Amino acid sequence: MIALLAFSRQGCRTARKIQADFAEEVRLYAPEKLGQPEFSPTASPLSDFVGPLFRQAGALIFVGSVGIAVRAIAPHVRDKRTDPAVLAVDELGRFVIPLLSGHIGGANALANRLAAALGATSVVTTATDINGRFSVDAWAAVHGYVLSDMGLAKEVSAAVLERTIPISSARPLPEPLPPGLVAGETGELGIRLSCREEKPYKNTLLLIPKALTLGIGCRRGTSKEAIAQAVEAVFQEAGLRREAAAEAVTIDLKKDEEGLIAYCREAGLPLSFASAEELRQVPGDFTPSEFVRRVTGVDNVCERAALLKGGTLIVKKRPGPGSRWRWPNEIGRYHHGKSNRRGHWSGKLGEYDVPGGPCSEKLSGFGGIYGLCKPCKGPLSGQGDHHHPHDRGGKALPHGPGLSPGGKTGGHGLLRGQRGLRHGGAAV
Hints:
Blueprint: E1 2-6, H1 9-20, E2 26-30, E3 40-41, H2 46-56, E4 59-63, H3 66-73, E5 85-89, E6 95-100, H4 107-118, E7 121-122, H5 127-130, H6 136-143, E8 145-147, H7 150-159, E9 165-169, E10 181-183, E11 189-193, E12 203-209, E13 212-215, H8 224-238, E14 245-251, H9 258-267, E15 271-274, H10 276-280, H11 290-296, H12 302-306, E16 332-335, E17 344-346, E18 371-373, E19 379-380, E20 414-417
Parallel strand pairs: 1-2, 1-4, 2-3, 4-5, 6-7, 9-10, 9-11, 11-12, 13-14, 14-15
Antiparallel strand pairs: 5-6, 8-12, 16-17, 16-20, 18-19, 18-20
């Protein structure tokens, strides 16, 4: 949306000419006393009225003096990466002056466009533009790249006025390169085009393309904080920049998953959904899960979702906090220790859904053993003592809760469980 503000009847006539040049949505504003029915009324103080427009509009065009525009936007200016384009046009339409966000916000390009439409003069003052040199923030905006460091972006913009700057990428660079850039991977200061945390130069400005699709699967009720923690961990582990994520995809069973929806909204990620059938049709070699298949109808959600729109899988499934780890469907043996001593697992565990880690890790802090004693089919559940019926000369004792620190254990049995060991147990 473009907001056009005029402050005189002549200014309103110029604003209508500007509006006619835009296919985009344009909203007209003017003081009510001017009696312009197609213009929504402004309010005083103007800076308060402009505040919501500054946050919502892609561009603000003031048809009037530069001073009016500067005073109106001054309380709201925050960051060149997020501030909208702001321009001033004199009421006769002779000069178009970009005031804010000339490169990233596109104010310079918009000024040139308006000047051509009005037969006016575009008053662009940024050094790279008037010297015909490469502007890194404008180039990033045109191609949809994210700048990793605004301080380094300023250094590049200053340096390119005096010398060429090297640029490199793991993929072919766009051709031809803008004036001021040269392909190269060495130097004091340079630009790297990548989704990864790569620094080939002593001072490397990363241009991060929004090129990654985030496939997400989660348990019902997973919080936005847990999802954010898992995503951050995956990106850090893989050496990827979080800014490279362009969108998130999941299965349509998650259309009402509040934590996932809230995470994507706060992260600025568009979230789309696919049916189990659509995910099954995605070609590739994926990490299968029988549990996921039973619940969703497809053997893997996150990896298939990540490739729903094509591309290459660069990070395979990574369970996060609250995720379910699926282990080999084999029977493990529990070896007891002496009374009041902790036991340990050996061999492979059965089908275990354990939050936190695979069976090769030492586990602590989780609930007791939940499952089934194979010889007698008796249940093992809860926390505390585990009295096995095949202990002490075959004398049957009542089944109690699972293993806990200091719990009494007796005999041994083959167990197929659903949870991990309590504090101090070791899974191998």
